[in-house]
């Protein structure tokens, strides 16, 4: 697994911290994180790729292909800014180039799997298909996550893409009933294993503390030691 695409069932659900955890768990390997389209930030502000590098460690190379100022879907943000959009083939080409120089390339999407990169309808799913790369789905813990996860997994299957598994992007310290039950039900909804749960607030940790904890949040398939807890 040289290239792994990281998507989510929506926005603001922990894709960046999960990407950082996977990168941190790969310490000792050369890791690149590729953010095809960063939206909602001005030039010079640290984006998601830089945040992954901050949290995961200095073995991570952070690459951003395009940045658009308004916090919108990439296609909309590019159009409103009068800027060229990022297209799936550009994402695939950048990831493949990084893979020649790194042991692992993590491609972190914006929003969900089918958010448009351009006005022709290109998506992260199209980039994953060009790369023949597996896709890791980040999902929230609580009520409503099962439907969104099932829809994302169904969209992956319809495109012949492999869903490597699901990681909970922000697991509460004291999960409610729905969150506890979803630990068991998420793999059923996804048709793929649950591969970890990152604790809520992990993204606020100092880099060294985050990197030290990352392996305990991820399953062995992602380089960690986490196992599914009993209800």
From TrEMBL:
GO MF annotations in UniProt: ATP binding; dethiobiotin synthase activity; magnesium ion binding
Cofactor: Mg(2+)
Enzymatic reactions: (7R,8S)-7,8-diammoniononanoate + CO2 + ATP = (4R,5S)-dethiobiotin + ADP + phosphate + 3 H(+)
Binding site for ATP: 12-17, 48, 108-111, 169-170
Binding-site list for Mg(2+): 16, 48, 108
CDD domains associated with the record: DTBS
UniProt entry keywords in alphabetical sequence: ATP-binding, Biotin biosynthesis, Cytoplasm, Ligase, Magnesium, Metal-binding, Nucleotide-binding
Enzyme class, first EC level, given as a word: ligase
InterPro entries xref list: DTB_synth_BioD, P-loop_NTPase
Origin: domain of life: Bacteria
GO biological process entries: biotin biosynthetic process
EC number: 6.3.3.3
Active site: 35
Location in or out of the cell: Cytoplasm
Pathway: Cofactor biosynthesis; biotin biosynthesis; biotin from 7,8-diaminononanoate: step 1/2
Record: residues binding substrate: 39
Cellular compartments per GO CC: cytosol
Known function: Catalyzes a mechanistically unusual reaction, the ATP-dependent insertion of CO2 between the N7 and N8 nitrogen atoms of 7,8-diaminopelargonic acid (DAPA, also called 7,8-diammoniononanoate) to form a ureido ring.
Family assignment from sequence similarity: Belongs to the dethiobiotin synthetase family.
UniProt-listed HAMAP family: BioD (MF_00336)
Quaternary structure and interacting proteins, as annotated: Homodimer.
The protein's name in its UniProt record: ATP-dependent dethiobiotin synthetase BioD
Protein source organism: Streptomyces arboris
Gene name, Swiss-Prot/TrEMBL: bioD
